[in-house]
UniProtKB/TrEMBL annotation:
Organism: Romboutsia weinsteinii
PANTHER family associated with the record: 1-DEOXY-D-XYLULOSE 5-PHOSPHATE REDUCTOISOMERASE (PTHR30525), 1-DEOXY-D-XYLULOSE 5-PHOSPHATE REDUCTOISOMERASE, CHLOROPLASTIC (PTHR30525:SF0)
Cofactor(s) of this protein: Mg(2+); Mn(2+)
Enzyme class label: oxidoreductase
Amino-acid positions noted as binding 1-deoxy-D-xylulose 5-phosphate in the UniProt annotation, renumbered to this chain: 124, 150-151, 175, 198, 211, 216-217, 220
Ranges for domain DXP reductoisomerase C-terminal: 260-376
Binding site for Mn(2+): 149, 151, 220
Highest taxon, organism lineage: Bacteria
SUPFAM superfamilies: 1-deoxy-D-xylulose-5-phosphate reductoisomerase, C-terminal domain, Glyceraldehyde-3-phosphate dehydrogenase-like, C-terminal domain, NAD(P)-binding Rossmann-fold domains
UniProt gene name: dxr
Name of the protein described by the UniProt record: 1-deoxy-D-xylulose 5-phosphate reductoisomerase
Any Pfam family hit: DXP_reductoisom
Keywords attached to this entry: Isomerase, Isoprene biosynthesis, Magnesium, Manganese, Metal-binding, NADP, Oxidoreductase
Residues that, per the record, bind NADPH: 10-13, 123, 125, 204
Amino acid sequence: MKKISILGSTGSIGTQTLDVVRENRDKFEVVAISANSSVDLLLEQIKEFKPKYVAVYNENSAMRLKEMIPSDIKIEVLSGMEGLKTISSLDEIDVLLTAIVGMIGLVPTLCAIRKGITIALANKETLVTAGSLVMSEARKYNVDILPVDSEHSAIFQCLNGEKTREIEKLILTASGGPFRGKKEKELLNITKNEALKHPNWSMGRKISIDSSTLMNKGLEVIEAKWLFNVDQSQIDVVVHPQSIVHSMVQFIDSSVMAQMGCPDMKLPIQYALSYPDRIVNDFERLDFSKWSTLTFEKPDLETFPCLQLAYDCLKMEGTYSAVLNSANEELVNEFLEDKIGFYDIPYYIEKTLEAHSSISEPTLEEILEVDRWTREFVKKSIK
Ligand code: NAD
Ligand code: MG
C-alpha cells in the first residue's frame, strides 16, 4: 500500500489523481489533501477518501472548512504555507504528488525531499524556478523525482532500461495549442476565452494559457533539462497536433523511441504512482486505424516568442529561468483578468529578464527574493 499526500487535490491533475486512487483502493491510500480555497470540493474529497490531514492555504477558507466538517469525521485541518509544509513531510507518506499550480510548490517540495519522500511531480514551475537546487537536494537525499507531465513521463518510459549517457536528443512533442498555424497579426486581440480552449486536453486555467503562448513547452524544455540532466542543445521541440506521440528519445546510434497513447493524463499520473510497476486499467486504447495520419512540424518561434525566451533562459543559466517563470505567472494572471493583451505576456517577460541581474547557483533564500523582485517589477512595469 502506497501512502500519498496531494498538493492541489482539487485541480485538474489533483482530481484525476483521485480518480486513479478510486480505481486502485487496494494499492493507494490518500493520507493528506490540500487546496488554495475550494472548500466544497475538499469536503467531498474528505468524505470519500477519509484523509487524516487537509491543508487549506487560504486562512479564511480553512476556518470555513473546519466549520463544515461533520463532527464524526476525524481529520486535522491545517492552513497557510505551514499547512502545506506539514502535509508534504509527514512521516507516514511514501509519495507526494505535486499537483499545485505555480512556484508556490517549491518550499513544500523541498520539505518532502529532505524527508526522503518520493516526488510525483506535475508542478513544473518548481523545477523551472529552482531546478539546480531541487535536483541536488534530491541526489543528496536519494529521492526519486517521477514525472507526471505527459512528455516527461513519455521520456522516462522510453529510458526504462536504457543508459542515459547514450541519449543524443530528447524530442518533446507539442500540440501547438489553440492558435497553431496563426500569425501574430491574427492574435493581437484574442481574448482569454479563445486562449483557454485547448484542442486536445482539458486543464487548469494557467497551463491552458501557457499552452496557447507555447510557454508551457518552454517550461517543459527547462523541466526536461533538470529531470534528465541533458544539455539544452539536446532538447528539441516538434509540433504534433494529434497528441498521440507524447515525446521521444533519440539515441547515439540514431534509434528513436517514442511513447504513445490516447491523450489522457490519468496514464502518466498512474505510472508515477505505480512505478516501477504498471497497473491494468480500462483507459481508452489507441486505435491505429482511427489515427492513420500523425503529423510533425517545426514550432513557429516568431509567432510564439515565449518558447524562444525559455531556450534563452536555459542558455543564460543562473536565476533567469526563475524570473521567466515568476514573470509569466504574474502576467498570465493579469491576462486572465483582462488587464493585458496576449502579446504583453512575452513583451513584459523580456523587459523583466533584461532588468535582472542573475545569481549563479542560488540558494533557496536568493530564489525566493528573485521571485519577489520579479513580481514587483512586473506589476510596476504594466501600470
Ligand atoms: P488547476 O488550476 O486545475 O489546479 C491547481 C490546484 O492547486 C488546485 O487544487 C488549487 O486549489 C491548488 N492551489 C493553487 N494555489 C494554491 C496555494 N497557494 N496553496 C495550495 N493549493 C493551491 O491546475 P492543473 O491544471 O491541475 O495543474 C497543476 C500543475 O500540474 C501545474 O503545475 C501544471 O503545469 C501541471 N500540469 C498539468 C497538466 C494538466 O493536464 N492539467 C498536465 C501537465 C502538468
Ligand atoms: Mg505537458
